[in-house]
Amino acid sequence: MTSVPTRLPAPSEPATGEAIVDWYATAARDLPWRRAGVDAWAVLVSEVMLQQTPVARVEPVWRAWLDRWPTPSALAAASPAEVIRAWGKLGYPRRALRLREAAGAIAERHGDVVPADVAALEALPGVGTYTARAVACFGYGRRQPVVDTNVRRVVARLVHGRAEAGTARAADLADVAALAPEDDARAVRFSVAIMELGALVCVAGTPRCPACPVRDRCAWRLTGSPASAGPARRVQKFAGTDRQVRGRLLDVLRAAEHPVPAAELDAAWDDAVQRSRCLDSLLADGLVEQTEDGRFTLPRG
Ligand code: SF4
């Protein structure tokens, strides 16, 4: 992939990464997990919850979760059923079980302290490239390129002149590291600032370029804002999907104090074939258990 040269900032202008950090100081949302003093465990929980769920839905669950399980060992001691209940309606509930597994590994291998080292973080269940670097950077103030979908989109436009991010590339981390300010503390700010720029300004679809702090040096704008070369983005529908059905079935089990007979699950969704497929997948994922007498329940651990 060749980079489209961006216009170099004039001597009186801040470098690109610095300009993004300066913008962040005035434009950032006040997200509770980004405040000073939030520990690495709270950062890890927020990052797992935020992976596929919007900020507004995450915030109350994140607060309740940390009140209840303020340490990894506290979460590890909870039953899978408690964890799935507390996950509520965040969606993709396998994340809750993976987070509990990671908590167990942190308690066991790291003395109940979230590791700061990226390799140790990546060795935890469910913790990938993005989450490991986000925790090292936002939880421990370590200089790290942190690359999520929003950041890849900003880099695609700003550096490479492409309308959309496309698939993840091995060079993404180096691209972001190359933009970061030299000063370590500013580099840490930059990692969160460029994520925020992608979330608020350089958004998917039509970016809000007039509000962008680096619009005068953006390769995509300087080359005439070319349209995306790839297929049009499709908005993911939810109604009628297996995700919705799985959610309905879990809602029944979350609300029940005891295992429920299959008939109660039948009432949650009319299409028997789809319902059965979704129940099978919940059982396979370890999110539901069947009792010896044939009823269904959240896993008791
Ligand atoms: S100028 Fe527009 S496209 Fe370029 S980085 Fe800023 S918001 Fe994104």
Main attributes?
301 residues, mainly alpha, 15 helices, 2 strands
Layout of SSEs?
Blueprint: H1 16-27, H2 40-50, H3 55-68, H4 72-76, H5 80-87, H6 94-109, H7 118-122, H8 129-140, H9 149-158, H10 172-179, H11 184-200, H12 219-222, H13 242-255, H14 262-266, H15 272-284, E1 289-290, E2 296-297
Antiparallel strand pairs: 1-2
The protein binds iron/sulfur cluster (SF4).
The site of iron/sulfur cluster has 13 residues, from α9 and α12.
Briefly summarize what is shown.
This protein has helices at 16-27, 40-50, 55-68, 72-76, 80-87, 94-109, 118-122, 129-140, 149-158, 172-179, 184-200, 219-222, 242-255, 262-266, 272-284; strands at 289-290, 296-297. Helix 2 (40-50) runs antiparallel to helix 8, helix 5 packs across helix 6 and helix 9 (149-158) packs across helix 11 (184-200). The longest helix has 17 residues, at 184-200.
Structure description:
- There is one protein chain.
- The chain has 301 residues and is mainly α.
- It has a domain at 242-297: Arc Repressor Mutant, subunit A (Orthogonal Bundle).
- The chain has helices at 16-27, 40-50, 55-68, 72-76, 80-87, 94-109, 118-122, 129-140, 149-158, 172-179, 184-200, 219-222, 242-255, 262-266, 272-284; strands at 289-290, 296-297.
- The model has no long low-confidence stretch (mean pLDDT 92).
- Bound molecules: iron/sulfur cluster.
- The site of iron/sulfur cluster has 13 residues, from helix 9 and helix 12.
